[in-house]
From TrEMBL:
The chain crosses the membrane at residues 12-32, 351-369. It comes from Deefgea chitinilytica. The keyword Ubl conjugation does not apply. This is GAF domain-containing protein. InterPro entries: GAF, GAF-like_dom_sf, HAMP_dom, HD/PDEase_dom, HD_GYP_dom. Residues 370-423 form the HAMP domain. The keyword Membrane applies. Keywords: Membrane, Transmembrane, Transmembrane helix.
């Protein structure tokens, strides 16, 4: 049952499924494992980075506070505590500027004295508030603020220095009045040796929020301090943002915001009127509040939490405890999407790379699968070629897979075997020559089995013997045996024994070899005899094959199976060809039987049906040998020769339907007998009547001499008239008008019939006579009459319509026959009437009709055309189809010439003598001028000497005379 290949999947796709499934399975497992491991590693790495960042921020905050504390403690030990004037205090400007330069978080350092003096150095960084407050000159790097009390007066002034500590401007400000002793930071005076950290407040000098570190100087006469701007703390803290959306907050012990990601907090005035930093819970930091509200929000470890919007965050809170300072807390929160952004990006990049590798792997897998399946596809194409019987190209499959290579090799061997088997089968089926068929079988089977010799036997008709038909020895050309070697199937011959015992292989010694195979030369070698019975479809033995193989090369089981298969096919071919040959022999015998019967039917046709085929084939053979001229391309195949042979032998087979008395009509009045005898008897009656009248006249007393003289004259006239009619009956002379007139005069004589003419006759003749009433007896009748009874009416079956299926173009006479005596004797030339001549010519019509009814095989389909065209003329006036020269094949035109030449020269026509060679050629020369026969074929007939060759074989010596063929050559 055929399979629908449209719903099938190619093999390489199935292979790709396996590769892709394994690849995807491995990739998914590996990717999932990698994803899980990477996620854990990324989370751990992010947590570690987060903690490190928080630790760095913590350390940064601690460093800022420690820096403020340290600078304050150092200033408390510096000589500045002893300075009493501005000039003395400016001597420490280099120390303080160095300290501030190395402590960027500290904005200013100052010292307040018990006397109320105040000295402060701050670094100018272009802050807007400072700019607004002091309007420092260009190039200002350091601003010195000084309060002194010269002469009991308060002197406030500002000094502006550049980077090189060069004074740019000194500005006295009467409005600058400041008493450090009333400031909160000055309370350090009461706690010797202890560092005091004040609450955030607005610096008086700048208006910025900050924290002041203060400590009593060593001489206990002043308080040294350092201002730490919260904005600077905020700046340093923001440097430790892990991501752009990181939330940061530095809280004091009351959870007030010292610094945050939102910027430097501003002081708020609370209900008690005090300005303080805002608390976190009143500050805009919902994420940090959400973290601190969680149980783990107070822990020192990083924790994952969700914001109020459900987003995952990583939070961390760290406590800062510095000496002499209240506890602080650093709180940080980073969204996972940012904290793990780089890690996720790396992971995604890794997954994308894995995906790309998977896609590449899939493509490579498909490519490898397709490449791996290419040999199978190639094998499939080779199998399809075998299905389509295409065996020309060898099997070529490039593969490194040993199984496919072995399959390709086996397929190639199978293809070669099938090809050889098909070629042999076709050759055996196509071979039409029985001898060549046997030779081909012997040669092929000998070559396949590597046999050194062999004999093929054919079953004898009597059923008891095998006859050696062909043999070969050591690859020499096949040769038919010089004498027939027979084997009795019931005898002791080793081939007969092998056939009876179904022995395929049998050892043959040198002695046995010579006895068993006398047709083959003697040898001293030992052979293995391979015996193959040739049986037809019914299992009947039609022959046998004995192959002699060197004993050292015994055939394998596979080879034996192949050879036996070929032998079975060969047996069918032998049986078929033998049957075909027998049928051909039967057909040939039947053809010659018909031709012989036609010739035997009429002595006037003689050997016409045997001689015309010979002459026709002589012409065809001569035409086939031509290399130039009109016949240069004329070639007949073996089948066409058979076609020509059959057509030539059957060219007159329609004559079996032509009545003998028409074919053999030698006189004008002849039918089944020559009716001249009836006419003679009537003349005899007239002569008797004349004598009776003479003697009656004498008896009645008349003049005896006169009556006798009159009788003699009347008898002489009757004799002359009969002689004239007899001469007319022979048909040898042209009937001139005067002869026709004389014939009519003679016919007007009458005679007396006294006996009835409608008794003792056939029924058919009675019917014809019944066409007119019977006259009473005695009746006077004309000597020569054309009576109604002489007309034989043509039946409808014998009429040919103009559109007849055979294409005949002939004029059909009204009557089948007209046997009128006067009508027939009046025929102008020859002995045949119009109706009889049509009947004669009708034989070719019957020939065509009869042959077209026969189921000829394809290669014999032109037999009716060749056989039925030998009465056509080159000008289209012939019969029965009025074909012209170009409408006729060469064989048909050749047969026309053969038929005419044979008819002219035949010596077995009793009604005429055979023409001499020169007479026949001269007549045919006229026919050339009249365009009745082919001039080229007639020229070939003469130029090749075929007229002489035919004359030597079939003509009498006296007919062969000298003839000049030059005028007739084309």
């Amino acid at each position: 049952m055929p399979h629908n290949s449209q719903n099938k999947v190619p093999f390489y796709i199935h292979i790709a499924y396996l590769f892709i499934a394994l690849l995807l399975g491995f990739a998914l497992l590996s990717g999932w494992n990698q994803y899980q491991a990477t996620s854990v590693i990324l989370k751990q790495s992010a947590d570690r980075q987060f903690r490190l960042t928080a630790q760095a921020a913590l350390e940064e905050v601690e460093g800022i506070y420690k820096s403020g504390a340290l600078t304050t403690q150092l200033l408390a030990q510096q000589r500045l505590m002893y300075a009493k004037t501005l000039a003395e205090r400016l001597d420490s400007l280099g120390f303080i500027s160095t300290s501030l330069s190395n402590n960027p978080a500290v904005g200013a350092q100052f010292i307040g004295y018990d006397t109320g003096d105040f000295f402060m150095v701050s670094m100018y960084r272009g802050h807007a508030a400072i700019q607004k407050r002091f309007n420092p000159p260009n190039g200002t790097r350091w601003i010195v603020q000084s309060i002194t009390h010269p002469a009991g007066q308060i002197r406030g002034e500002y000094l502006f220095y550049d980077d090189q500590l060069k004074l740019i401007e000194q500005r006295i400000d009467p409005n600058y009045q400041y008493d450090p002793r009333v400031r909160d930071w000055y309370k350090a005076k009461a706690t010797p040796g202890q560092l005091i950290v004040g609450q955030p407040y607005y610096f008086a000098s700048s208006g910025l929020v900050g924290i002041t570190f203060s400590q009593q100087t060593s001489n206990q006469l002043a308080v040294a301090g350092s201002d730490l701007q919260l904005a600077r703390i905020n700046e340093f803290l923001l440097q430790h943002q892990v991501t752009p959306d990181t939330r940061l907050a530095l809280l004091d012990h009351n959870e007030r915001v010292i610094a945050s990601h939102s910027g430097t907090p501003k002081l708020i005035t609370e209900a008690d009127g005090q300005s303080r930093l805002p608390k976190l819970f009143s500050y805009d930091a919902p994420v940090l509040k959400a973290f601190l509200n969680m149980p783990q929000g107070k822990a020192d470890n990083a924790s994952t939490f969700a914001s109020e919007h459900g987003e995952a965050w990583e939070g961390l809170a760290r406590t800062i405890q510095l000496p002499n300072m209240s506890q602080m807390q650093l709180v940080m929160a980073v969204p996972h999407r940012e904290l793990l952004a780089a890690a996720i990006e790396e992971r995604n990049r890794s997954l994308l790379m894995s995906l790309l590798l998977i896609v590449l792997g899939v493509l490579v897998a498909i490519w490898l699968a397709r490449k791996a399946s290419n040999p199978i596809n190639a094998l499939t194409e080779e199998i399809q070629k075998i299905e389509q019987f295409q065996f020309d190209d060898p099997v070529q499959v490039e593969t490194n897979i040993s199984e496919i290579a072995r399959l390709a090799s086996s397929l190639g061997d199978m293809k070669t075997t099938i090809h050889r088997f098909m070629e042999l089968s076709q050759a055996l089926a196509a071979e039409s020559n029985f001898g060549r068929l046997l030779a081909r079988i012997l040669d092929e089977l000998g070559a396949v089995s590597l046999a050194e010799g062999g004999v093929i036997y054919i079953h004898h008709d009597d059923g008891h013997y095998l006859e050696a038909a062909q043999y070969f020895w050591q690859s020499k050309a096949q040769t038919s045996p010089e004498h027939v070697a027979t084997i009795d199937l019931n005898g002791e011959h080793i081939v007969a024994q092998a056939l009876r015992n179904d022995e395929v292989l049998r050892s043959v010694s040198p002695d046995t070899f010579h006895h068993a195979f006398p047709l083959l030369p003697a040898t001293e070698k030992n052979f293995t005899q391979l015996t193959l019975p040739l049986r037809n479809r019914d299992g009947t033995l039609v022959g046998a094959l004995a192959l002699l193989i060197d004993e050292s090369r015994k055939p394998s089981a596979d080879l034996l199976a192949f050879v036996q298969t070929i032998a079975a096919t060969a047996a069918v071919a032998v049986d078929t060809q033998r049957l075909v040959n027998e049928q051909k022999i039967l057909l040939e015998a039947f053809i010659q039987l018909i031709a012989g019967a036609i010739d035997a039917k009429s002595p006037y046709t003689g050997g016409h049906c045997q001689r015309v085929p010979e002459l026709t084939k002589m012409l065809a053979r001569a035409a086939q040998t031509q290399t130039t001229g009109p016949f240069a391309d004329f070639v007949l195949s073996e089948e066409q020769w058979e076609e020509l042979h059959i057509a030539a032998w059957l060219h007159d087979c329609g004559k079996v339907t032509t009545p003998e008395y028409v074919v053999d009509k030698a006189t004008k009045l002849e039918t089944l007998y020559d009716r001249i005898h009836e006419i003679r008897m009537r003349f005899e009656v007239l002569k008797r009547d004349a004598e009776i009248r003479c003697w009656q006249g004498i008896a009645e007393g008349g003049d005896a001499n006169a009556l006798k003289t009159q009788l003699a004259q009347e008898l002489a006239t009757l004799d002359d008239e009969f002689s004239f009619i007899a001469t007319c009956n022979e048909g040898g002379e042209l009937m001139a008008p005067e002869k026709l007139e004389k014939l009519k005069q003679i016919a007007s004589r009458t005679w007396l019939r006294t006996l009835p003419d409608r008794i003792g006759i056939a029924h058919e003749e009675k019917e014809r006579k019944a066409r007119e009433a019977e006259a009473p007896l005695p009746v006077i009748e004309a000597l020569l009459a054309d009576k109604p009874e002489h007309i034989l009416i043509r039946s409808e079956r014998d009429k040919l319509a103009e559109d007849n299926p055979w294409g005949f173009k002939v004029k059909t006479p009204e009557h089948m026959y007209n046997r009128g005596e006067l009508y027939n004797l009046s025929v102008a030339r020859g002995t045949l009437s119009e109706e009889e001549r049509y009947k004669i010519n009708e034989h070719i019509i019957q020939t065509i009709i009869m042959l077209e009814k026969l189921p000829f095989p394809r290669h014999l389909r032109r037999v009716p055309e060749i056989a039925g065209g030998h009465h056509e003329k080159m000008d289209g006036t012939g019969y029965p189809k009025r074909l012209k020269r170009d409408e006729m094949s060469y064989p048909a035109r050749m047969m026309a010439i053969a038929d005419i030449f044979e008819a002219l020269t035949a010596i077995d026509r009793p009604y005429k003598k055979g023409k001499t060679l020169s007479e026949a050629i001269k007549i045919m020369g006229f026919m050339i001028k009249d365009q009745h026969i082919d001039p080229e074929i007639f020229s070939l007939f003469l130029s090749e000497g075929l007229h002489l060759e035919y004359a030597q074989r079939f003509m009498q010596p006296e007919q062969i005379d000298e003839v000049d063929i030059t005028p007739y050559l084309v």
